[in-house]
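Re: the 445-residue chain
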Amino acid sequence: MKDKFTIVITCYNQEEYIYNALHSVFIQDYNNIEIIITDDASRNFNKSKVEKYIKENRKDNIREYCFIINKKNIGTVKTLNKAIRNSKGKYITFFAADDELSNENVISNYARSFEKFNQRVITAQCYLYDDLLINNNGEYVNVKEANKFNKADTLDTFIKMVKGCFYGSGGTAYNKNIFEEFGCFNEKVKLVEDWAYYLHLLKNGIRIYFVDFPALNHRDGGMSHHNITDELPPHVKTYYNDLAIIQQQIILNDMPKLSDIKAYHVFQLVKTNYQSYQRYLNPIDIKKYNGFIKESMLKYFKSEKNIKLVEKKLKIYNFFKWHVYYKFKYLYKSNRVLSFSIVYWIIFNLLYLNSNPSILQNTNNEIIYLVSLFLIILYINNFLNKIGDNMIFCLPITTLVSYGLFKIFIINSIFTIFIPIIIYIIIYYILYIIRIYFKKTEQQN
């Protein structure tokens, strides 16, 4: 039999949705599931009704189930920790009663991923739905970035995570032994268990490993979904207070060892985060948290002098990063025709002029040759680019063919500048015809 997998469904005034959440668990194709239903002192949670639904609809894959009913509201974090301590599975995942598992393969996909990738935390894709769970409004996780962080140093992922949580809580599963080694969720906060724990694990070298499969359909209308013009309900204020506490406790008071520039960047991110929370915190808290940033920076960098030194380093770093590196990167991405033309022009002239020095017997000829060759290739590239994007292959092939011809046939004439141009055009159209052929073949298939 497969290892037991615990699914915790958390409920707070969401009983009308829990039956749909349970149904999404019952249809799982994994054959050894434990369900734990928690309720954090809802106004109208009917345990008998929910239990009756489970008994009447559960499948053989649901080996056992239990309830954790809080007599008074203690918050998501403490409730989840109670569920962890009472769970019997080797693996565990949590999601809210108003959400649902995306399909019948979710738990099997988690289990396979734990085995295949040998990771202790697996996170997957969450889909953002409307309040009726009908219309899919997009993906929560940026797949490209998440795959990149699978290979990155965990401290680099930590720095990115400081800016905000980019993995879905309900789309994450844990090998339960991780809670034995690193403790349960941080109870200094009341509602936000995921972000605090991700930061804690990343600092300790534990990767949050993303696997691209559908895991959770998230219903719109949760704590982080509210209109900025609305009067803030108490739970939203609690949510943002949690975010501020995480900044202080998990980041500022326990900074990992980073390079000076990276550490300074983290402090700036925290400062930006606090500024974005201003509407949700009272002025006394804002002043207090700004004080925490200053204290933490002094503690980390030892003195004001060192902070000023880091700021100078950062200015130099940013100059080369933004004004040099990104400028060239933008030039390459926005105008590849120009980039490849320059490379071709330089390589061909180095190779050709070295093998045929007698072709340029005076300075005027040399200037005419270089300028005309460059302008002709630039013009042809620009023209051919309107037809199709094959010049990245043409340029290196033309260089090799031209160089080979000039090695075999030594032609001492100024008109030899047209030979590589002719070769270029021939190669371009051969590649163009091949591309069109394969495109038609794909369409027919």
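The longest helix spans residues 304-334.
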